[in-house]
Write a sequence for this structure.
């Protein structure tokens, strides 16, 4: 019994010398987060031609995958068009699960690429807090600007803030491109969108831009983060830790590499239209001639209406991209009066034809002034294609009205 007690006592002494297992240490705040930038390729819809960016944050501890998307707006809002025309179109930051986001973009046959960012735990937490604060209902809405404040520049700026401006520091060099050249490049496969955007925007989009400004395009933000090297105490680290494709777009052609040069086609279209209007004037005593010249005047009146819209954008809206639009000289606002003169010209009214001729001559003169003004430094808008079309167009309308009026006077009708 004594021996047994001694053995038990010795065992207790040995056990007392063995340290108890240490409790599991708590995870370092931020270490549970993975931050990636998502880049979505262009789509078919005119709104999707430029692509898109978002920020994806995975929280392993909370088991969440959140996509922070600055490109949300109401397609079906009755106020969409009025607010768009006033330059007050609201966008906001929405938060959606990754799975839903990828599913939607796959349905649209658009690519999705993820670039994991090598942020410190503190930077990841800072970015997450900033995005969550920005996503609150009272903070999420912002006024969308096509080139200076859009869904990509917001992602770019959010990342740049948490890395102390390192992204902007790599993007100060000029790129030899403009907002217009990129816009033309990415919309050339959709002619109505190309024409509408190009004619309505003024010289603001023709200024040379830097790599930083070029990052209004999602693909340029994608390329920009790849250039960044972060200077850490442990050594230099690329900002992009890894990258992978989350969705592919089978059969979708890559965006064009350069903007088109369509001056010849614009000129030929204008010359053909001019020939039709001039010929219509020569045969104004026939129904086909009256119809042709009336059609030319109707289109001319619509161009005048466009000129009025350009003036409205310039003086009455916040659309700075539509200010200083030199196409006002190609779409003479006073030509809108031609819409009211169409019927009288078709009926061979001398007074109506004489008034329409004066308006056409004025439109030619204004177009020529717009061409000659190109020698001046302030007339720096890239609108040569439109001059190539409108100058012969107005000359054709003028000739058609002159021929029609001369024929009427000779006939004594």
């Amino acid at each position: 019994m004594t021996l047994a007690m001694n053995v038990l006592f010795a065992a207790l002494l040995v056990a007392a010398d063995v340290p108890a297992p240490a409790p599991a240490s708590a995870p370092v705040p931020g270490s549970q987060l993975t931050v990636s930038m998502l880049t979505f390729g262009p789509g078919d819809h005119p709104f999707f031609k430029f692509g898109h960016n978002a920020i994806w944050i995975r929280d392993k501890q909370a088991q969440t995958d959140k996509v922070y998307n600055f490109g949300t707006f109401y397609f079906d809002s009755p106020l969409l068009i009025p607010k768009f025309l006033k330059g007050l179109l609201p966008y906001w930051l929405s938060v959606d699960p990754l799975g839903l986001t990828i599913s939607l973009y796959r349905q649209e046959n658009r690519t999705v690429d993820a670039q994991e960012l090598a942020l410190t735990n503190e930077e990841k937490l800072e970015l997450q807090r900033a995005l969550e604060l920005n996503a609150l209902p009272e903070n999420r809405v912002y006024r969308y600007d096509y080139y200076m404040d859009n869904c990509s520049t917001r992602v770019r700026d959010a990342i740049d803030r948490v890395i102390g401006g390192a992204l902007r520091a790599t993007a100060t060099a000029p790129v030899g491109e403009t907002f217009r050249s990129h816009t033309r490049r990415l919309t050339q496969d959709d002619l109505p969108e190309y024409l509408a955007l190009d004619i309505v925007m003024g010289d603001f989009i023709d200024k040379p831009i830097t790599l930083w400004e070029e990052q209004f395009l999602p693909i340029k933000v994608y390329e920009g983060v790849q250039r960044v090297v972060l200077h850490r105490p442990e050594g230099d680290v690329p900002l992009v830790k890894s990258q992978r494709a989350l969705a592919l777009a089978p059969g979708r052609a890559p965006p064009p590499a350069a903007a088109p040069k369509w001056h010849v086609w614009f000129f030929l279209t204008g010359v053909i239209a001019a020939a039709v209007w001039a010929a219509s004037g020569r045969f104004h005593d026939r129904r086909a001639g009256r119809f042709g010249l009336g059609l030319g005047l109707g289109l001319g009146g619509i161009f005048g209406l466009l000129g009025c819209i350009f003036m409205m954008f310039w003086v009455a809206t916040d659309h700075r991209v539509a200010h200083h639009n030199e196409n006002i000289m190609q779409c003479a606002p006073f030509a809108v009066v031609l819409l009211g003169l169409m019927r009288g010209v078709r009926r061979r009214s001398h007074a109506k034809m004489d008034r329409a001729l004066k308006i056409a001559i004025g439109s030619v003169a204004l177009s020529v002034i717009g061409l000659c003004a190109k020698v001046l430094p302030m007339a720096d808008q890239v609108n040569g294609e439109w001059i190539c079309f409108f100058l012969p167009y107005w000359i054709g309308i003028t000739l058609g009205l002159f021929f029609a009026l001369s024929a009427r006077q000779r006939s004594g009708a």
